[in-house]
Amino acid sequence: MTVETSIAPEALKQHLVACLGDHLLSAEVKLGEVTLTVSPAHYLAAMQQLRDAAGCRFEQLIDLCGMDYSTYRDGLWEGQRFGVVVHLLSVSLNQRVRVQVFCADDDFPVVASVNSLWSSANWYEREAFDLYGIVFEGHNDLRRILTDYGFIGHPFRKDFPLSGHVEMRYDTERRRVIYEPVTIEPREITPRIIREDNYGGLH
Fold it and tell me: CATH top-level class for 9-145?
């Protein structure tokens, strides 16, 4: 297989804008990489275009993760709370792109699964479901992958308590793992800062 020389990010952005059309909400170049934002209604169709269309040919999904924007920009974020960010790579054209999609409903975040397009999305989507509670519609095996079967909640959500909801331990009398309410008292620790009198030249 011949690997082509990658095109400049701005030229790639213009090509992807023309290719995806109405599926796109925005496209920009950040830190030398193209970032596309697609609408949740057209997410699956846009991703198929990125995989199959000439000049795109993103054969590999190399990363997918969930996002919780509820505290983004110190709470000044006005968009949807949950999103999914995907990184795609075209080996044949030597180019990559970042795609983000926001879930339409904050209370029940859902986006289409792209597992049928890239099998590598399987465990990534399960991880985003487990940690953020994002449901990937069409995924054929959407279940927790990192937390235990009896786990309550989604630990990467910004409102999830640092100590969790339950704790588990092995009970020697019952000879099994049991779950109990958390006994840790939540508290905030403010570090004490001690500086010399003339620190930084300040008087």
Answer: alpha beta
